Amino acid sequence: MKYGARNQIDAKVTGIQKGGLMCKVKLEIPANSIMNSVMTIESVEDLGLKEGDQVKAIVKAINVLLVRE
Predict the structure, then answer these.
(1) Burial of 47 from C-beta contacts in 10 A (0-12 / 13-18 / 19+)
(2) Which of 10, 33, 47, 52 is the most buried (most CB within 10 A)?
(3) What residue ranges define each of the domains in the chain, with the CATH number in brackets?
(4) Is residue 10 within 8 Å of 54, Cβ to Cβ?
């Protein structure tokens, strides 16, 4: 799948914190850094995300999008 954003970072899901409508997905990225992505609970469920999953963080403007490949 192609994405318009050029900033693509391999990441590992290290935590998922669910709220009422949204989730905060905590990621470990290269150089032992941490990044977070906020998305709807529905999006987390659609992606089937869970701790330990390998994802790609797609960074465009102020958004961080996660995809499973």
Answers:
(1) middle
(2) 47
(3) 7-67 (2.40.50.100)
(4) yes
Please report the DSSP string for the chain in residue order: ---S--EEEEEEEEEEEE-SSEEEEEEEETTTEEEEEEEEHHHHHHHT--TT-EEEEEEETTEEEEE--
Which is nearest to 18 in space by CA: 55, 50, 57?
50
pTM of the model: 0.81
Tokens encoding 6: 């050029």
